[in-house]
Design brief:
The complex is a heterodimer. By secondary structure, chain A is mostly helical. Chain A is 79% helix and 0% strand. In chain A, α4 crosses α6, α6 runs antiparallel to α9 and α7 packs antiparallel against α8. The radius of gyration of chain A is 21 Å and the shape is globular. By secondary structure, chain B is mostly helical. Chain B has one domain: MetI-like fold (Orthogonal Bundle). The longest helix of chain B has 33 residues. Classes of the chains: A mainly alpha, B mainly alpha. Chains A and B meet through α5, α9, α10 and α11 of A and α3, α8, α9 and α10 of B.
């Protein structure tokens, strides 16, 4: 068995530009999927997390159901659900990229909601009382008092969840979206060099995930010392 | 939305048997991988707390490399890539004994072993240092102190985060469908392909996963109650994924 690392050099454009970044005729792209999914998943997660803490049972039970349902089911299953349901409901086929983005946003929001909830619950009760005593309306209290403190407290957990999301985007290749994993699959089948190919993308994924985890650790030290 | 529901497809013909086979394969794959992942996790997690720099670095490399790469990439690596590097006879043995299943076991064990190592390390750190000192003072060697005192106490403390890991492993075992292991998600897809009844098949798969997750949670809660150390209520926080 001999290694041939030249396949990486010969295919770097396809792997990194098309697969990782998403520039090229196939669309997709690991980063082009991961970054919007993080932003949208975070936004939805904050909303669901706040609903989970709402007084009204008509709001907090649906939010609880949402969180427990998506956390109890494998991501692959959720992706297949979206793949099947979106054409049924809208009557048209959406591109793989849109299906993947919707599935990741909804799935990750369930996990982010739990993190946000923990952050809100860690805020001392006095903060709420003080905000209400100054006469702030409920909405402004949430936006200006509760959320900034809650989110600052849970930044390390959020970054950790974003690492999970980044790694999870590899599953978009299962429904055929072009990402780093799909690109490596294609090259590996054409060149019959699976060992080299998968080790190479492992290193690429590792570089991103490890950098993010160092960042998370540094933030953790910073927030705990502050 | 015009869709005719036909829940009967879940048990007519071969389909019911396929679902049961899928559940059995998912459970077998998850249970085997869980045992290996715990073993690897205890080993690597304990090494990371030892006072020997080189052993700590070795375990840290294993943990940091394997848990920061997607499981799907590891599955493809262990299934398509790694067997090429094996000697001829080992490749032949593997081809006779279901290479998909064993590659999935290796991928899940090694990946979740790295994650379990973090859980175990956090657990060992949460045990008061005086316990190890007392064990050493009573004449045990470092190895004996870990084997008879530190690890047994830690394993009891980490059951809540370990439950999360077990659930994560069970759900991640669904990725094995990509290399052709006929586990639950694979069988769900197969029923969908043969009958065209995606809604029913996906609902069945989803509900079965939810039930399996509840089962794992209750089994681990039973285990926790059974092995509890009287008077000790300290709990370790969940380790980062």
């Amino acid at each position: 068995m001999s290694f041939d690392w030249t396949v990486i050099v010969a295919n770097w454009k396809f792997l990194l530009l098309q697969g990782l970044i998403g520039i090229g005729q196939f669309g997709g792209g690991t980063l082009r999927l991961a970054i919007p999914a993080m932003v949208l998943g975070f936004a939805l997660g904050v909303i669901v997390g706040l609903c989970r803490l709402a007084q009204s049972r008509w709001i907090h039970y649906p939010a609880l159901l949402y969180v427990e349902l998506f956390r109890g089911v494998p991501l692959v299953m959720v992706i297949f659900w979206f793949w099947f349901l979106i054409p049924q409901l809208t009557g048209q086929r959406l591109p793989d990229y849109a299906v993947a983005l919707a599935a990741f946003t909804v799935f990750e929001a369930a996990y982010i909601a739990e993190i946000v909830r923990a952050g809100v619950q860690a805020i001392p009760r006095g903060q709420v009382d003080a905000a209400m005593a100054t006469g702030l309306p409920y909405g402004q209290m949430i936006v200006h008092v509760i959320l900034p403190q809650a989110i600052r407290n849970v930044i390390p957990s959020l970054v950790t969840q974003f690492i999970v999301l980044f790694k999870d985007t590899s599953l978009a290749s299962i429904i055929g979206m072009m990402d780093l994993t799909k690109a490596a699959q294609i090259v590996s089948q054409r060149e019959i060099r699976p060992l080299e190919m998968y080790l190479f993308i492992a290193v690429v994924y590792w570089l991103f995930a490890y950098t993010m985890s160092r960042l998370s650790r540094r933030l953790e030290i910073k927030t705990s010392s502050a | 939305m015009a869709y005719n529901f036909e829940w009967g497809v879940l048990w007519t013909g071969e389909n019911g048997r396929w679902l049961l086979q899928g559940i059995w394969t998912t459970l077998r794959l998850s249970a085997l991988s869980w045992v290996f992942a715990c073993a690897l996790g205890v080993l690597a997690g304990a090494l990371r707390t030892l006072p020997f720099r080189s052993l700590r670095a070795l375990a840290a490399c294993y943990v940091e490399f394997f848990r920061n790469v997607p499981l799907l990439v590891w599955l493809f690596f262990w299934y398509f890539g790694a067997p090429q590097a094996l000697p001829r006879t080992a490749q032949d043995w593997l081809n006779l004994h279901g290479p998909e299943f064993w590659s999935a076991v290796v991928a899940l064990s090694v990946y979740h072993g790295a994650r379990m190592a973090e859980v175990i390390r956090a657990g060992i750190r949460s045990v008061p240092g005086a316990l190890l000192e007392a064990a050493l003072a009573s004449g045990l060697s470092v190895g004996q102190a870990y084997r008879f005192v530190l690890i047994p106490v830690t394993l009891r403390l980490i059951i809540p985060p370990a439950t999360n890991e077990a659930l994560s492993l069970l759900k991640n075992s669904s990725l094995a469908l990509t290399i052709g292991v006929a586990e639950l998600t694979f069988m769900t897809r197969q029923i969908e392909t043969y009958t065209g009844k995606a809604f029913e098949a996906l609902t069945a798969g989803t509900l079965i996963y939810l039930i399996l997750c509840l089962g794992v949670t209750s089994v681990m809660a039973q285990v926790e109650r059974y092995v509890r150390i009287p008077g000790l209520i300290a709990r370790v926080g969940t380790a980062e994924p």
